[in-house]
Amino acid sequence: MSPFTFVDAVASVGTLDAGAERAAIAHHDRLTKPRGALGLLETIGIRLAAIAGAMPPPVPTPAAIAVFAGDHGVLAQGVTPWPQEVTAQMVANFVAGGAAINVLSRQMGATVTVVDVGVITDLDDAHGLLRRKVRRGTADLSVEPAMTIDDVERALDVGAEVAAGLVDRGARALVTGEMGIGNSTAAAAIIAALTGRTASEVTGRGTGIDDAMLARKVAVVERALDRLGPEPDGRTALAEVGGLEIAALAGFIVGGAARRIPIMIDGVIAGAALLVAASLCPQALAFTFAGHRSTEPGATAVLEHLGQEPLLDLGMRLGEGSGACLALPILEAGARVLAEMATFDSAGVADKT
Amino acid sequence: MSPFTFVDAVASVGTLDAGAERAAIAHHDRLTKPRGALGLLETIGIRLAAIAGAMPPPVPTPAAIAVFAGDHGVLAQGVTPWPQEVTAQMVANFVAGGAAINVLSRQMGATVTVVDVGVITDLDDAHGLLRRKVRRGTADLSVEPAMTIDDVERALDVGAEVAAGLVDRGARALVTGEMGIGNSTAAAAIIAALTGRTASEVTGRGTGIDDAMLARKVAVVERALDRLGPEPDGRTALAEVGGLEIAALAGFIVGGAARRIPIMIDGVIAGAALLVAASLCPQALAFTFAGHRSTEPGATAVLEHLGQEPLLDLGMRLGEGSGACLALPILEAGARVLAEMATFDSAGVADKT
């Protein structure tokens, strides 16, 4: 069997099912509650029906989180106080089950799959780790292309293949996760490039940096954008100023959409990947939910650009998929309400006059 | 054994444990994440430690939801399009498991206990229903006191006893729920009285009313406030313009605080009860979490008055405890992160330089 590629995924992304959507809207108005009183929970359930093509929609469990890991040549510019080896150390922490995303995924009954798509060091085989290294980290995006277009294609393929594989093994929702010291610099460059905002509008403190380092980071993003030029497409943006895990996440999103599965988007890094996915396959957007609003300014720029409303706003900025994972019960509730609530007729409750 | 009364509850509410709080703050800074990166999740975990007096705090599951039901004499003024019998019909729906709160509580592994504290009709015995009727509905708060001070005391006692009973039978978090056609009018009056806001600032559309009915509802709340006079205490506000389920909820909150258990507060009705609880027992507030921001203006007035940040903001306005129930996984995550995440030392992850 030939592998499922990004090109395959783009070709098979369909549209939402308007019939199931209408049925869900109509059913919501028969349930024992004032019409519209469940707010976004109603919107979510209706879209889950449209995604699945079924009313009620299937409950979107279990979820699968994929944490794509990669390193960044831009670390040479001093954009973060964290040493590069933390990327590989955190991969080991994910595999051992000790990171925040492991704790949250266990609570949600979800799996965590770690995918090495570009960590600079060699990683040993481990349970829960997929070795799909495209290259050992990116080049320094402030002075040269982060990677080649061929690298981009391979990373997109890794993401699409991982998404399809997780769904084929039973996942009924996907969650975007990532790890890569320096990746908030690449994400800021992608977001500025694809939303038309300036570097200073979308560049944030990432893992927590001081004013001097933030100024340096903004200047680095500005240099990258100058090299890139205006209005690039998603592939070019990835190659020039992106990251391997960001490219893989874009493929993962489109791969999940191709399988008609809801995809919960995490914070600023996943937001950059979502912009790329929307550039390369606009229909994929309808299969995604914004899990939360990260404190990073670039995350809000993405939400505004795409007109998405986040499910959570808890002042989180960790990444790994943590905010998106925490939003999974809201997705599940949106489906369960449509499947399990009584109607005015079935419960013998009088409607308003 | 004598019953656990509201007065007993007030007498036994303690203070937060400063030692456990400090230990949780220090532990968060050793976990494998940038300091502060989990935002409100860190704040929640730290307060759970301070509530329990233990680091890590115990996981706050299972939760128990108590839905207090009562009727309202103010329906005579035409403040809602829903007929009064819907209160009792919805109680039957809760007992049968078909309401939104049943669906959400099943998802969260929580129990639902329905408490008749003032439904106007007689209710038959049923599994999951506690018959604690103080009186058959309130009087019309726009023309006379809604109930006597003695009624208030008895309803406060019911709430405190229910909270203590649920905790004694194993609940590790409590959720405020309610049902009562007309109760958003009583809640608006309580909130205006105890926050100093005007009727028009805190009176909303409740289950969904048109402009003419909203104007009538505001006028009704204004008349109630004129009768009540300025700066009442919680008991007087309850007796003059309150509701039986609101009084019971205030007792429930203080009862949970007395047992040192986190209490998740729902929307505008629960917010009115929280103001009463804060008036009668200020120390109880530290044991509560604002589950969500209801779309009702009175709910936001309560959050602002008490300086609380809601965990969810999903445009919900159903009541029943639905928004608070949906926030339970966030509470649980706050505890689990402190209990289960690896530290920089234990995971061999380098700290930032």
Care to describe what's here?
The structure is a homodimer of 353-residue chains. Chain A has 353 residues and is α/β, with parallel strands linked by helices. Helices cover 50% and strands 9% of the residues of chain A. In chain A, helix 1 packs parallel to helix 11 (244-258), helix 2 (18-28) runs antiparallel to helix 3 (40-52) and helix 7 (183-195) crosses helix 9 (211-228). The N and C termini of chain A lie far apart (61 Å). The interface between A and B is large, with 60 and 60 residues.
- Major sheet strand order of chain A: 3-2-1-4-5-6
Element-by-element helix/strand order of chain A: HHHEHHEEHEHHHHHEHEHHHH
Helix share, percent of chain A:
40-55%
Gap between N and C termini of chain A, in Å? 61 Å
Low-confidence stretches of chain A: none
Shape of chain A: globular
Strand residue content of chain A = 5-15%
